[in-house]
Amino acid sequence: KGASGKWGIKHVVRSEVAPIMVSRSGEVIRRTDEELAADLLEPNVCIVKFETTKGPLKVRIVPSWAPKGAQRFMQLVADKYYADLAIYRAVPNFLIQFGVTNDMERTSKYQAIPDDLLRGVPIVDGTICFAAAGANTRTATVCIFLGEYPQLGGNPWETPVGKVCDESMGVLHSIFTGYGDMPQCGGAGPDPIQLEELGNDYIKENFPAC
C-alpha cells in the first residue's frame, strides 16, 4: 500500500514452478494431495479476498502452478478489474464464472496471454482457472469449479491458477445457481453478450438473485 493509500504491485519475484512428471504414455501425472497442499503454502502464494453478496471469498493464487496465469490474475486484481463485476454464469454442481464488463476502456488494456504448461494440478472443488476458447486465449474471465472434474484440465489453457481457501468454501457454495447455464450453452441464465453491451443493470433487472 503506497503513500496515496492505493494498493499496487511494487515488485515481482520470479517463482519456482511445480515440476512436471510425465508417464510413459506421455501424460502429465497428477500431483499428489500432499504436493498440492504444500503448493498452497508456498511463500510466494498470494491470498486475494473478493467481497460478494454472500460474504468474503478468499482465494490462493499459486504461481508455481501457472506462472503466466498467476501473473495476469494478480495484474487484474491490482488494476481492480474485478471490482463491481457480476457473476454471470453459475451452474449447479459445475462452476461459477465472472469477468465480463461493458467498460471497454477496462477490457482494452489486456491482450490474451500464452498458455502455461500443464503441471498435474487437478480441477477439484474450488479450483480457479481462466475461461478460454482454445490455445492462448486466456484474458480476464475466470471460472471457479463447484466439484471435481477429472475430464477437464487436459489442455494447457485449462491450467489452474489457484484455489478457494478452505474457510471460504461455504461462501462459494452459497452463491445462487438457480438460473442455470447461459443461453449459449442451452440454459436460461444471463447472456454474457447482453452483459457486455448493457453492463450490470442487465443482471440487476433480469437476474436479481445473481
From TrEMBL:
Alphabetic keyword roster: Nucleus
One Pfam assignment: Pro_isomerase
Gene3D superfamilies in UniProt: Cyclophilin-like
One annotated GO molecular function: peptidyl-prolyl cis-trans isomerase activity
Domain of life, per lineage: Eukaryota
Domain annotation PPIase cyclophilin-type: ranges: 55-175
Gene Ontology CC terms, in alphabetical order: catalytic step 2 spliceosome
Subcellular location: Nucleus
PANTHER family in the record: PEPTIDYL-PROLYL CIS-TRANS ISOMERASE-RELATED (PTHR45625), SPLICEOSOME-ASSOCIATED PROTEIN CWC27 HOMOLOG (PTHR45625:SF6)
This protein's name: PPIase cyclophilin-type domain-containing protein
